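User: Predict the structure for this protein chain, please.
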Amino acid sequence: MACLELEVCKEVSGKFKEESEEFTLDGSVDLHGHPAIRTKSGRWVAGIIVLLNQGLATLAFFGIGVNLVLFLTRVVGQNNAEAANNVSKWTGTVYIFSLVGAFLSDSYWGRYKTCVVFQVIFVIGLMSLSLSSYLFLIKPKDCGSVSIQCGKHSRMEMGMFYLSIYLIALGNGGYQPNIATFGADQFDEEHSKEGRSKVAFFSYFYLALNFGQLFSNTVLVYFEDEGMWALGFWLSAGFAFAALILFLVGIPRYRHFKPSGNPLSRFCQVLVAASRNSRVQMSSNGEDLYNMNTKESSTNVNRKILHTHGFKFLDRAAFISSRDLVDQKGALHNPWRLCPVSQVEEVKCILRLLPIWLCTIIYSVVFTQMASLFVEQGAAMKTTVSHFKIPPASMSSFDILSVAVFIFFYRRVLDPFVGKLKKSDSKGLTELQRMGVGLVIAILAMVSAGIVECYRLKYAKHGCTHCNDTSTLSIFWQIPQYAFIGASEVFMYVGQLEFFNAQTPDGLKSFGSALCMTSISLGNYVSSLLVSMVMKISTEDHMQGWIPGNLNKGHLDRFYFLLAALTSIDLIAYIACAKWYKRIQMEGKREEYDEPDSFKV
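Assistant: Here is the predicted structure, written as structure tokens:
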């Protein structure tokens, strides 16, 4: 009897141990390359570490970026045009480096190693900038404020400065697209509960980014505006170092995905193989396409992508000819002549994503106005309350507050409500639907900004006698347009992060996050081009143009309404692209929606 009880106890304890050591289903591994155990890795313990890391790193980055143009004018001694041009180049470089970081992560290093390497570069750049500013650039002491200008600087000192800020650009650019994806890696999308947590993570990630930016735009900016540049830079370096240490603390808890090799060579192989088979006759049912067998695919860490219709020409890369037949002994095929269906589908996935990505660029044009024309508009309004003067750039705080409010509104109210209307267990709006809602709200933001500008001009004409006087309309009338931008970000950028992460193949997840950053970068360039074109055309009608130096003599409202019209056209194109889009289908992957291929307004 005692023996029987002992065997029962062993059996129960064995089952309990087996359940407690349940492995993840998405192929993630631990630090040593073994399959990740669900209860001992990832989930919100690792996710919260990543969120805190992102908040601190964002605080450090914007502590430099938000006031860099003032540093260049007050400390370095550049004029406004030269400083603005240098900041634009620097910002664009950050986004270019995001592609470098994504490539290294997906191809060779993996997301964890890439995040660590680029965070170290980021910290080195910040410490170098702090040190060079304190020792060489801020001369005489306490210069760089509105009242005290700094002296001249040598070539070596300027070379040290530019090396520092571009190390910051390299570090932050390479880190950003990987940290979002690495945080999402901590949740198994094949598990029902963790799959929902993974979707929620992107919302909280964007919230952490905004809270970090809020602190840098208020506290750090105050020190720098008062001429305490070295203190502001050292604080940024300290926050970046704290972010790095915090990230390293989570090492035992992280889940990882192995890199899958150079995607460029895989893409080229598909194109070359398809071209070589351009004249073959393909069957309609796809029976003559090459699928890797279990033995071949066992070394591939990525899930196989199922065959889809569309881009028929690329299917020729997987056509099995008599030359390409693999014998029974498992002889290897030539990858430049024959590619498996899953590899062909990788290329199809990226081609399907490109139209959606292109449609997000116009939204980024609208988003960039918050840091440029919104500020100029606010500076031409009444900015005083009693004896306190409100910095026009600080109005972006309402955007950040709006982001926080709408993230919780969407997750706690709107998403459950839409799910009940659909009468299914699936989540509410799809990513594509949310991005469409973001475009609609962006149109409302531009209409709101245009209406405010109409009234600002009205009160400027009646309330001033000097051409440089500001309007008597309070700057707080800008709150609705900032709030609309914040709400649109929740639907567009959070949805975009989720969409590109879910719809890129396993070996290109970081590249999907980098697409979001390049969309913002191109939005800046398109906005600059659009302003130049508008000014060139509008100055033919009257001397000042729509956006002159003195806004009281221009028609900024017309530019806002033009952006609203362009975004409306973009919305129509986006809906067409979203209806055409077909979601990626992986072997063994859960379907997230009842109607995954449709976009309903």
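The first strand starts at residue 384 and ends at 385.
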